[in-house]
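Cast an eye over this sequence plus tokens and explain the fold to me:
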Amino acid sequence: MAWQTLNPYLAGGVQPISGALTVISTIAAERNIFGTVFVANVGEEIDRVRVALRPAGTVTVSDEQYVLYDTEVQPNYMLQLSNIALNGLDSLIGYSEKGLAVFNLTGDEIKNYA
């Protein structure tokens, strides 16, 4: 199995309102993204964040889709989640308890040449 990087990918700067699940990025059909999620607390107090990977065709977020859940992020601090793989029409979902977190997804669009 061989993978080829096609294009760089960046979806970023999304700051959810407090207490709301927010789509950070939905991957276009026929794309696969391999990347890193950055979560930065831009506020002056501790915030709790969640990150979920919602598969294509799924409307709600279930417990097993979370990769972070109510994780504390200190003021002016950032978390990095590496090796995140998303397929076409999958969505990256973010949540910020106080609305102080900014979410970014960066990586590469890849193709499998099996």
The chain has no helices and eight strands.
